[in-house]
Write a structure and sequence with these properties.
It contains 1 helix and 7 strands. With 84 residues, the protein is mainly β. The relative contact order is 0.12. The model has no long low-confidence stretch (mean pLDDT 86).
């Protein structure tokens, strides 16, 4: 991540950010073998670079992450705790 221009967060070591010259931000979060990312630039380039570097599968829009259900709609992004 660092060699691709990302900065590691000082407090949360699994969080990386990259800001381009126009102030656009890209955020990636890694946890063991899971990764989520969001940004308003270089999404396709980042995805291609990660797939070239690591054996991974693009699962598309996030539905679950670390046991948390995520739903995206026109109204926003909603996070739900799994029922026990």
């Amino acid at each position: 991540m660092i060699k691709n221009g990302f900065c590691r967060n000082n407090i949360e070591s699994t969080l990386y950010t990259k800001v381009n010259e126009h102030g656009h931000i890209f955020i990636a979060c890694l946890y063991v073998d899971d990764m989520i990312y969001i940004g308003d630039f270089e999404i396709d380039e980042f995805n291609a670079a990660m797939m070239k570097e690591f054996e991974m599968t693009d699962l598309g829009l996030m539905k679950y992450f670390l046991g948390i259900e995520v739903e995206e709609s026109e109204k926003g992004i909603f996070v739900f705790k799994n029922k026990c």
